[in-house]
Each structure stands twice: as structure tokens, then as C-alpha cells.
Hints:
The protein folds into five domains: 5-128, Rossmann fold (3-Layer(aba) Sandwich); 137-236 and 318-333 and 502-574, FAD/NAD(P)-binding domain (3-Layer(bba) Sandwich); 239-317, Alpha-Beta Plaits (2-Layer Sandwich); 335-498, FAD/NAD(P)-binding domain; 579-645, Alpha-Beta Plaits (2-Layer Sandwich), CATH 3.30.70. Helix content is 28%, strand content 26%. A five-stranded parallel beta sheet has the order 10-7-6-18-29, with helices on one face. Strands 20-27-21-22-23 form a five-stranded parallel beta sheet. It has a four-stranded parallel beta sheet with strand order 2-1-3-4, with helices on both faces. The chain is globular, with a radius of gyration of 31 Å.
Amino acid sequence: MAKRIGLFVCWCGSNIGGVVDVPKVVEGVKNYPGVALATDYKYMCSEPGQNMIIEAIKEHNLDRVVVASCTPRLHEPTFRNTIARAGLNPYMFEMANIREQCSWVHSKDKEGATEKAIALVKRALAKVSKVEPLFESHIPVTKKALVIGGGIAGSQVAIDIADNGYPVILLEREPTIGGKMVKLDKTFPTMDCSACISTPKMVQASQHPNITIITYAELVDVKGYIGNFEVTIKQKTRYVDHNTCTGCGLCTEKCPTKVPSSYELGLGTRKAIYIEFPQAVPNKPVIDPENCRYLKTGKCGICKKICPTGAVDFEQKDELIQEKVGAIVVATGYDLFKWEEAYGEYGYGRYKDVITGLHFERLVNASGPTGGKIKRPSDGKEPRSVVFIKCVGSRDEAKGKEYCSRACCMYTAKHAHQVIEKIDGGSAYVFYMDVRTPGKAYDEFYRRTVEEGAQFIRGRVSKIYQQGDKLIVMGTDTLLGRPVTVEADMVVLATAMVASEGSDKIAQMVGVSIDKDGFFTEAHPKLRPVETMTGGIFLAGACQGPKDIPDTVSQASGAAVKVGALLSNDQMATDPMICQVDEKMCSGCLVCKEVCPYKAIEEKTITERVGGKPVERVVANVNTALCQGCGNCTVACRAGAANLKGYTNQQVLAEVEALCR
């Protein structure tokens, strides 16, 4: 049966029509084999444009459609739905991108852009003539979610999902949820207490009937696919039975061993059996095996002897927990740039009074090691002059990261304000490259800090060295064009936000790509910022890139909406543009399995009759729910047995032939 192709070329206003000669494109391909209609319109994606396609399909009895317009990534679903409304199979369709690939990149060569547009349209026509109807299949959905990371992003997304009536597992590798936000003192620009915001969220999560919190645990394996993930969680040994423990704190009080506290960043101490901080959730202790006397030497054991409920268990082992979930949200947060390894001129960490912004947060925090009084770590004296250095590791391709960490300008302004507010006669000097305040009331807060007396010096710091009990900070004021030297009692570094340690392993397990800096990559930076290219995996917070608290919470709630939309279905349709394997051609080498990033290919044993006798052999088998249609397997298949529906070898060769004519 002869094919009847409809071609619709879009002007996209002047985006395409200002460079590409659209009527010439139509004229150049209207006699292409199979073309029953070729026309153009100013805005093909508009409602009148879509109605025009529907009417043309019915009037001209079209059985396949090509639209030449903008990027398929954005508009392909739109036009698939359009032809489906007209009664066609939505996969009897192809697009030619003549905006990004023609008018936008060849704006100074209109003739060349037009010729290229004609070639791309011919390519699309050649392919669409070879397409076949594809049909979606359906898979069941497990109405349960896993959230990886218990910071403010993870807590918010878990609460929002749970409020919609779905069970949630909130997984955190530390002994308590809360993340880094609970370590902060105040939040800009309102200067309200960070703990007053975050701890109620933590309690809300712990008391929610639909949320199961698993702390001091790690994700070790993920199998399955959207709607049907099977996850394995390793519950690390706490040496305390949390089902029995009442959190009375007697064990912590009597433990004789003190060690530097990682929660206090080494500025304070904790016991070998400890609760991270008073508002921790769960508010029950764990034992640090690296520092517990009993676990190291077999001596002591006071905590076990005095525990009134017998919760201390030195024989406890790691436990593996298996769960089935329909969606996974990654909210693994961030770490701070290790400045000591790159900025030797700032002291290699030799000077105790050169600290990071997070250290400063603990010093100024009322629940911190100094009770909220700003004191020098070296001698406990109150500093009179504090220097703040911004962009330590940020916007520095040579030593750190080329990106901006977004929150540093504002929290440095906050710290400078706190120095002036808390230290009578205190001075704050801020060395900066630029001041970036893109948020509601952010710039007003920054200007308020300047008016209070904080001195902002535009320029880099070249060196810090100690002279007596002073730190000599040498830099440059680029606005005045002269060197600057400041005698400081303490130096605070605004270090870059970097991807959290271990996030690369999480990315491998859940099948999500990461960028060159280790942050998780979203499906589309503007239109799908909380989704990933792997179905059922969503992102929330700073695991995707540096964010402040409002942006983090907003994205967390956005991710929760996407999860809720997924879990609201009893079953869901799968994309039919996936790999298929011709078992007759398959040699069973399983190279395709090795290159599949989604773990969608498994080995399968089939029985054939050879010489009248049954013979078993191994072939590749595609899990249609896991396959994302990336095409890696088709490239790797030596026998040519793997083919991608919608991009078959026959279709691709037809495109090549059309371009070579």
C-alpha cells in the first residue's frame, strides 16, 4: 500500500523563518516519494497549528506525519498527541529540527541554512516511510517510595509524599536525620533560628504514620524498574537495640571515653556511645566502634552494665533490609570543598583560627561547643577582627570548581553581620570576587550588612601567615588597584559546595548519570528539573547542584508531586521505543548486557531443534520495563540481532541514503 505522508513546516515566527526560507523548503520536498501534502504555518505547535494537522490527516487520508520545527525533545510529545487525536498511531511520526540545527547555528548563512533544512526534512521523510505502529504495554506500580538522604530536602519530600497517603522509607547514612541544616545557627535573610525550622520537620517526619525512618544505614543495591524497584539497605551495626532503648541518656553520661565530635567538626567532643545532638531523630544512641574501649580491648562495658532496658548489644551485626518501592528520590545533599588540599597559601589547615563557614556556624550557634559565643579555636579568646574570604574552591578552575556555589555570598554577609552584632567593637572584612544576591530580600540583607560596617574588599587573598597571635591576610583591592594587608584574629573561608561523598556509587546503583562535578543530572534543566532520564528516579536538593534552603525545599516539594503522580496509578504505560532482540540472530555473547546502563538485558536459555535433537543455547533477553531505549546495545551487538524500535537499522539506513542523495 502506498504511503501518504503529510509534511508540516513551521516558521516559529522569526526563530526559523527569519533565517530559513520556509516556502523554499516546502517547494524542495513536496515531490519527495510518498508525500501527499506539504505545507507550512507560522506556529505549528499552537492550537490552530495542531488543528490544521488533524484536519489535514482526515482530509488527505494521511497515514504518517513529519513536522519540521523545533527540538523534538520539547515538542515531540505534543505532536504525537496531536496525530493520536486524529486517529493515527502516535509513532507514525517523525520530526526534523530546523531551528536548533539550522536557523540558530547558521544565522549568517541563510542559503546554507535553507539547504540544510531541506536535507533534514528529506531525512525525516525517508525514516517515516519505514516506521511501523508501536504500542505501549502496562506494568503494575508499587505504591511506596524510597527517599535517599534525610536532610531538609529528604525530610520535606518524604513528608509531602506521606501526606498524599503513600508509605515512604526515609534512608539516612548518619545516626540522625537533619543533614547540614541542623548545624546552622540562623538562616538568611530573615535571621530566624535554623533549628527552629528544621527540628519540627524532623519530628514531623518521625511521627508521621506513613514514614519509616532508617538511619545509620546505606543503600547497597537497586534492582527493577519504574514502579517496581527492589532495594537492599544495609543497616549498620549500632550496638544498641533501638526497639528496646528508651533514649534515657544514662549510657552516654557514664561513658568514660571522649573523642572529637564530627557533628561539631572537631570543635567539641562526644562520648564513644553518643547521640549527635539533643534534638536528634531518632533520639537514641549508637556506639562508635573505632573508639569504644570494650569493642577494642574487651574492657569497660559500663554502658551495657548500667542500661536499664538491656538495649546495649555488643554482639549486634549488620543487617540487610529488602524493600519494594515504586519510586526513588535522591536527596543526598552536598559536602564542603576540601580547601586544605588546594589552598596551601591559606595555611594547609596548620592555623587553627583559619576555619570554614560551617565551623563558624557551630561557634555562633547557641547549642554549639561555645554556647553561641564567637571564640577562637586556638585559645578560646574572642576575636576582634574577623576576615571572611569568599569563593574558596568556587569559580576557580585552576584549584577548585568553575561553578558558583550560590549560597556563599549570603551566608558570608550573615556571618559578617553576626560578628558586628555579637562582638562589641568587632570588625568584619570580606574579600570577594563579586556579590551575588539573587533571592527575595537577599540584596537588602547584603546592603544592610554593609551599612552596619562590614568592609567588603573586591579582590583575591594571596597569602595568610601567622605573626604572633595574629593572622596576616594579604590580598588586593582591585577597585582601588592596590595591595591590602589585614591583621585578623580569625579567618573564615566560604568553601565551595561539592557533590556528597559516595554520590557516584548511588548514581551507579539507581542508573542516573552525574555531571563532571559529580552532581546528579536532571532530565531537562528547565522543563524536567526534578526528573532523571531513568524512569521512577527523582532528584531533590543540593544533590543536583548548589542550592540554598528555599530552593531546596521548593525542589523537594516538586519531586514529591512527581512521585505522587506516579504512585497514584495502579499501572502505568511503558515507552514502546525500546530494544528488541532477534533470537535467531543472537549469538549469546551478551556484550549488550555489559554496555546496558539500565541493567535491562538478561540472559535467557532457549531450546532449538538441531538435526532433530533439542539443543539449549543462551540468548539476550530485554526487560521491557527497564529498557530506556538508549541504543547502546544495538551499537555493541556484533551479530546485528539487537534493534531499537523506532530507530531500526532499516530506518537509520534510509535516513543516511536520503542525506547522501
